[in-house]
């Protein structure tokens, strides 16, 4: 038996909308500690890692570890049938090949139940080691969304440079180029508006904007985004969902081909 | 050609070894391709009204047409193709080659006859059977590849074996071929449908040798024996043993010697002077250049060179050739996108490893059914 009730059901909607462009089908692993998911896009460039703590649910009951294979598109369709102030119950049992989604309106007058068929998904699970990042940027999540959206008007990829002076996003394409610089700002009135840079070493990395624009669909989940950079390593874009858990996106960098190696350094 | 019914066997008994993928997901991957095989397929497949494409001097151009567009498609999608040409044929193949020659001669005779009586359909069919790849075809293809900036090498012997060696030694990611031999030669990953025409919209099928071996519970040596039993290019088979029986026998007895000993002589007779040990030797240690000694690089395409060769000598349409050049060039210089798997390693999911309790061996030991059967849940297959 597995059952998890989330009072703020609209969170589910937001979570699925943020990951569905990256992960088509994924196994939702349910255990005593909560619900987690790891999945990659079909070309294995981006990875999603999600964890929702069992405490976030009331009640939460998981008798045995269970993995629910679901298509993100179908999940999104079903969740769209819920109203924003509905609570959402997810329920299944070991013997079942369905999972039920039960939406209860806040005044308990309306209850809807949708059953989704489970799928067998052959997924690869990647081990992500803990590592020291060269620089970590914490900034308002909507600011980051804006930057990615604006720069994708100009080019396919963005070059991100972190130095002690700040962080710089550059993109260029056939119509021209764009450059957006952020200076660390810790004196903003609202703590959520600060830009905070922890720098161990300067980095310069290039990423495909297409994926970053997928990731920033999670903006509504958290006011802040944490970007962790390490030279020649994937970028981590992390959203802390308050009191619930986290949603992390990993994106493999673009690497110059050996024979066309450029010798640019961060300025 | 290849191994008789090997694809059927894998699809039936080790379906988890087959994955489907779009060509664009192979960006940045180095892929070895058996050139001679591809040329042959182009000449057969690329025709108008049953005739091969020719320029005004009556020279065949189907192979160049095919090579140009298929290679451009791979480059556009960011793939790095490497073509491998056949060297000398192995002695063992002489039987098979003689058979092919005989078939070709027979087809030629029938072709003349058919065209005399005006049976167009038969003539067309026979014309395809008379196809032979000449060294002129190969040389023209090598010239075109050089102009396109795509590397090619000549194998000491069979191209298929050389491709497999490159995959085994990690020089390339996979071998693209329609010939299932590649797996027998030990290619870790085989890609099929890579050379299909774009219009057919066929997904690439990716076959993983290791998964095949694990699922069938075979060592590579046993797999080679299985392929020989099923029917390969180098030697005969035992009459009456198809792929299902062959698999059962191999799983039970491990090698051909022991199978032969256990067979009921009244029912099955192995061929006389059966040369399976030689065929086995050929698959296990073919004549190849070791992967570390092979060097290749992708360069720039030469627009004027392509035009003067294809338009000047082979009467291609100039606009089209220039267009292909533009497509190739556009795909370059974007920097290559790295993949997650080059940073993080795959680990077995605790979930599925816990559920690995299915004792039924071959029949249902694909990863998917393991999960389903062990958890006692009859989930519907993904639709």
UniProtKB/TrEMBL annotation, chain A:
The organism's place on the tree of life at top rank: Eukaryota
This protein's GO CC annotations: PCNA complex
Entry keyword set: DNA replication, DNA-binding, Nucleus
InterPro entries membership: DNA_clamp_sf, Pr_cel_nuc_antig, Pr_cel_nuc_antig_C, Pr_cel_nuc_antig_CS, Pr_cel_nuc_antig_N
Residue ranges of every copy of the Proliferating cell nuclear antigen PCNA C-terminal domain listed in the record: 127-254
Domain Proliferating cell nuclear antigen PCNA N-terminal: 1-123
Pfam families: PCNA_C (PF02747), PCNA_N (PF00705)
The keyword GTP-binding is annotated on this UniProt entry: no
Keyword DNA-binding: yes
Location(s) in or outside the cell: Nucleus
Membrane-traversing stretches: none
NCBIfam families for this protein: pcna (TIGR00590)
Function: This protein is an auxiliary protein of DNA polymerase delta and is involved in the control of eukaryotic DNA replication by increasing the polymerase's processivity during elongation of the leading strand.
Family (UniProt): Belongs to the PCNA family.
Name listed for the protein in its UniProt record: DNA sliding clamp PCNA
Organism: Oopsacas minuta
TrEMBL record, chain B:
Residue stretches making up the XPG N-terminal domain: 1-107
A Pfam entry, by short name: XPG_N
Region feature Disordered, mapped onto this chain: 330-383
InterPro entries noted in UniProt: 5-3_exonuclease_C_sf (IPR036279), Flap_endonuc (IPR023426), HhH2 (IPR008918), PIN-like_dom_sf (IPR029060), XPG-I_dom (IPR006086), XPG/Rad2 (IPR006084), XPG_CS (IPR019974), XPG_DNA_repair_N (IPR006085)
UniProt keywords, alphabetically: DNA damage, DNA repair, DNA replication, Endonuclease, Exonuclease, Hydrolase, Magnesium, Metal-binding, Mitochondrion, Nuclease, Nucleus, Phosphoprotein
Cofactor(s) the protein requires to work: Mg(2+)
Gene3D superfamilies: 5' to 3' exonuclease, C-terminal subdomain, 5'-nuclease
EC class of the enzyme, as a word: hydrolase
Protein's recorded name: Flap endonuclease 1
Organism ancestry: Eukaryota, Metazoa, Porifera, Hexactinellida, Hexasterophora
